[in-house]
Amino acid sequence: MKRIILYPLMTVLFVGIAGKMAMTQVAKNQSDKQLVKTQLVAALEPVSVINIAQNTKNIDEKTALNLVWKLPLVQRKAKEIERLSKRTIKVSAIVESVPNPNNPYYTVRVFEDDPNNYNFTIYWFRVFHETGVIEALDVVENRYVSLDEWGEQIRKRN
């Protein structure tokens, strides 16, 4: 009776201990591999950051201003205002803010440049400094939207 109970229990115990040791060794090997990968990546990281920084082409203030000024809707509005004012009012644009760590956009304001010192804002845009993607301020909802969405909203409101 002792053999019937004792031997299977001993076998289960030894198999369990051997399995636990094998699993511990596998886990240790995995963590060693992960540590080696982490050390390898850490050793290469400064070079990677430098390469990425060299390949990134940020746009400058003048480019952001030109991208906004060349928008067809801005050009149409400028011509319309000049025509209706018989060329006494011109439309201009200015970069109001530049990118910083908290805000990666150039903010561009398009306005009526009235000789009587009245500068009425027509549109607000923001230009992402890395890609030049332009978004327009939807003044009704007070949020920036894509140019496609903005154009649709203008068409619906007019």
Report on this structure.
With 158 residues, the protein is an alpha+beta fold. Helices cover 55% and strands 23% of the residues. It is built from four helices and five strands. A five-stranded antiparallel β-sheet has the order 1-2-3-4-5. It is rod-shaped and about 115 Å long.
Largest sheet: 5 strands, antiparallel
Q: What helical percentage do the residues reach?
A: 55-70%
H and E string: HHHEEEEEH
Strand elements, count: 5
Short description:
This protein is of the alpha+beta class and about 160 residues long. It has helices spanning about 1-55, 60-70, 70-85, 145-155; strands at about 90-95, 105-115, 120-130, 135-140, 145.
Secondary-structure topology with pairs:
Elements: H1 2-55, H2 61-69, H3 72-84, E1 90-97, E2 105-113, E3 119-128, E4 134-138, E5 143-146, H4 147-157
Antiparallel strand pairs: 1-2, 2-3, 3-4, 4-5
Protein traits:
alpha+beta, five-stranded antiparallel beta sheet, 5 strands
